[in-house]
UniProtKB/TrEMBL annotation, chain A:
Family stated for the protein in its record: Belongs to the enoyl-CoA hydratase/isomerase family.
Annotated metabolic or biological route of this protein: Lipid metabolism; fatty acid beta-oxidation
Name of the protein in its database record: Delta(3)-Delta(2)-enoyl-CoA isomerase
GO cellular component, one term: peroxisome
EC number(s) from the headed UniProt entry: 5.3.3.8
Gene Ontology terms for molecular function: delta(3)-delta(2)-enoyl-CoA isomerase activity
Keyword Lipid metabolism: yes
Automatic annotation (TrEMBL), chain B:
UniProt-recorded name of the protein: Delta(3)-Delta(2)-enoyl-CoA isomerase
A Pfam family that the UniProt record links to this protein: ECH_1
GO cellular component terms given for this protein: peroxisome
GO MF entries: delta(3)-delta(2)-enoyl-CoA isomerase activity
Length: 238, 231
């Protein structure tokens, strides 16, 4: 389902196989386990997530859900803590969008601090409008946090626009466009290494990310420290 | 610490001296005292305020040496004074222009963003939220303020979560700064030009202040203590 590879201080999480990497209970669980490994390894200072094959992730495993509303709501419920894991991960995260990222798969991508994407093929696509599915609240909170240009957000959510890497870069969703899947991964790893090299305190990084996305972290039920705790931390560092 | 002078209808608040203009209780209180004279009195219509600084630095943030010498129970004094200073700028009944004449870092960046308009020196100096590099977290009002003042995701992420050193040109491209100029004098001159332009359009400063507090309502909620912002 996914593999972990360590390169220096960067952990590379790859969604394996040539399929669509759809988020069903199995893959969600593997991903959460991988993120727990990243979190607990003191030698890991940055994370890159990539996919093999044509897809980064094509969204929820609708086949598993058998298009039942119970199945669907189960998957929506299971993905939320996965997104929360990423938003609370105490290190910089870089998504290497090596193929199509649709619906929950696009959410997985933009839940990273930096999004690198190939420009030669593949699209970001919130398909929900096209296939008649609603957005879970936390999907919209994530999109509103990460896609702050109003027209881009409108095109993504209300037009179900398929956005290439190049367009996504122009519109502020993607940070860097690369020429191929392998270049996307290589550049993402390079960025992750640069970020790891800043030697930031992990707890501070996690705290500041929550400060950058306070509404999202509330939506994902990630607790934020009180001002008193922040002041205590400050005093302890003098 | 600071001086307040008047040039025609433009008030010029200068952080004086060649040092880093770091925020300790003395400097913050002096700034608040200078602003209180503008908050309390009625002025001629079509006024404006420019804040600038002498020397290499606009402000390099909180005075860490003061903090280290103060008992822990007093640490929040400078945080609360900065909060009050921000509430003063939000309440000011005239347009405000920051002339970023030198480096602005950490809490110094907060002072910059507390203004309606920003003119920044482009030949040297950075806008640098150093907290991540230095290992400091944000208290709530600070977080709310930066979220309201820098709504663009990639910009806010780079400024806060990457501790990027942003030049004037980059800051302009990213919507943090309005104009760039050469040298300290050039920056102040451009700020004077901009201040005159915007002052000409605002005859009722108190209405401006009300709208500003509404525009940044979340920040206002966090920086204005119940019943007043003086501490």
């Amino acid at each position: 389902m996914c593999t972990l590879e360590k390169r220096g201080r960067v952990l590379i999480l790859t969604l394996t196989g040539s399929g669509e990497h759809r988020l069903g209970p199995g893959l969600i669980s593997s991903l959460r386990s991988a993120l727990a490994t990243a979190r607990s390894d003191p030698t890991v200072a940055a994370l890159v997530t990539a996919g093999e094959g044509r897809f980064f992730s094509n969204g929820l495993d609708l086949a598993w859900a058998k298009n039942s509303s119970e199945g669907l709501s189960t998957l929506v419920r299971l993905v939320k803590p996965l997104i929360a894991d990423l938003i609370s991960l105490p290190m910089p995260t870089v998504a290497a969008v090596t193929g199509h990222a649709a619906a929950a798969g696009m959410m997985l991508a933009v839940a990273h601090d930096y999004v690198y994407m190939r420009g030669d093929r593949g699209v970001l696509y919130m398909s929900e409008l096209d296939i008649g599915l609603p957005f879970p609240d936390y999907f919209m909170d994530l999109m509103q946090a990460k896609i702050t240009d109003p027209r881009t957000l409108r095109d993504v959510t209300l037009r179900a626009k398929k956005i290439t890497g190049t367009e996504a870069k122009e519109r502020g969703i993607v940070d860097k466009v690369c020429q191929s899947a392998s270049e996307t991964v290589a550049e993402a790893v390079k960025m992750a290494e640069e970020l790891a090299g800043r030697n930031w305190d992990k707890g501070v990084y996690a705290s500041i990310r929550l400060s950058v996305y306070p509404k999202l972290c509330k939506s994902l039920e990630i607790p934020q420290e009180s001002d008193e705790a922040v002041r205590k931390h400050f005093a302890s560092r003098l | 610490m600071c001086t307040l002078e008047k040039r025609g209808n433009i008030y010029l608040l200068t952080l004086t001296g060649s040092g880093e203009h770091r925020f300790n209780p003395s400097l913050l209180s002096s700034l608040r005292a200078a602003l209180s004279s503008l908050l309390c009195s009625s002025h001629a219509p079509n006024s404006a305020l420019i804040t600038c600084a002498e020397g290499k630095f606009f402000s390099n943030g909180f005075d860490q040496s003061w903090v280290r010498s103060a008992p822990p129970s007093q640490h929040r004094i400078i945080s609360d004074l900065l909060r009050g200073l921000i509430s003063d700028y939000l309440s000011l009944p005239m347009p405000t222009v920051c002339a970023v004449t030198g480096h602005a870092a950490a809490a110094g960046c907060a002072l910059v963003l507390a203004h309606d308009y920003v003119v920044m020196r482009e030949d040297r100096g950075f806008f640098y939220m150093s907290e991540l590099d230095v290992g400091l977290k944000f208290v709530k009002y600070f977080e709310v303020f930066f979220n309201e003042k820098i709504p663009d995701n990639q910009t806010r992420r780079d400024v806060l979560l990457r501790s990027a050193r942003v030049t004037a040109r980059e800051a302009m491209a990213r919507g943090i700064v309005d104009r760039a100029a050469q040298g300290i004098e050039g920056t102040i001159e451009e700020a004077l030009r901009l201040a005159e332009e915007v002052a000409a359009t605002v005859s009722d400063g108190s209405k401006l202040a009300e709208k500003r507090k509404l525009m940044f309502s979340e920040t206002w909620r966090h920086v204005s203590a119940a019943g007043g912002s003086k501490l």
